[in-house]
Specification:
- About 55% of the residues lie in helices and about 0% in strands.
- The protein is mainly α and about 90 residues long.
- It has a domain of about 30 residues.
Length: about 90
């Protein structure tokens, strides 16, 4: 919490840096600002560069290949375990 002087100059300075004049008018221009805005919506397919960036952010192609290998291994293990239980029963 900022320290204020006896005349409140710190409070006024903070209000001005936050875009508010300190008089409750809602900022520059007079009227209050909207709290929400309309949502933008894109229609169509996702470009390939987005998938590439997503893969890079997840650790790169090597990490993807390793995770996919583990997925295939776990799925194969599940199938084999199910077949084994059927044979034993």
């Amino acid at each position: 919490m900022p320290r204020t002087t006896s005349d409140g100059t710190q409070r006024k300075r903070d209000a001005m840096t936050n875009g508010n004049s300190g008089d409750g008018a809602g900022g520059k221009g007079g009227g209050p600002k909207a709290l929400m805005s309309t949502e933008e919506k894109n229609v169509g397919s996702v470009p390939m560069r987005i998938y590439v960036k997503y893969l890079q952010a997840a650790g790169g192609m090597c990490m993807f290949a390793f995770a996919y290998f583990l997925f295939v291994l776990a799925t194969g293990n599940n199938v084999l375990a199910t077949q084994w239980v059927r044979l034993v029963s």
